[in-house]
Amino acid sequence: MKAVSIKELKEELTNNTPKELRDLCLRLARFKKENKELLTYLLFDSSDEVLYIESVKKEVDEQFELINRKSHYLIKKSFRKILRCIRKYARYSQKKETEVELLVYFCTKLKKFTPSIKKNSGLQNFYNKQIETIRKKVTLLHEDLQFDYGIELNELTSD
Hints:
- With 159 residues, the chain is mainly α.
- The protein has helices at 6-13, 18-31, 33-45, 49-65, 72-93, 96-112, 121-138, 143-157.
């Protein structure tokens, strides 16, 4: 089965009643966890972005506590898993400020992580790549935010 375009979906959805739209959304939410998470964000969390960011940070903290620290391989694997979650939550929000805020928080946690990421070149390269990603995303923000995040980036890059 081939999926139709967004334009065709939009046209078809305009013909549905509110009850039919609700039923479609609920049915869609049953199929994938990500659909359910996105619907949860749109209905409950999108009105208060600060609270949403705090809840994601809390989840990141919990994930950092669960990291297996026995080898650098397992540490890096856990870091990538956490980063995937952060990117997913940032995609739900679709706000650049939220994405940058979460990435800065992630890098702050990486910098404070024990054992130090500086002892392994792979982990250090992973960290540096995230810093570069943040730099690119900050350039897309408003000037005031660029300045604020620039200060935070300087703190992250200083040793």
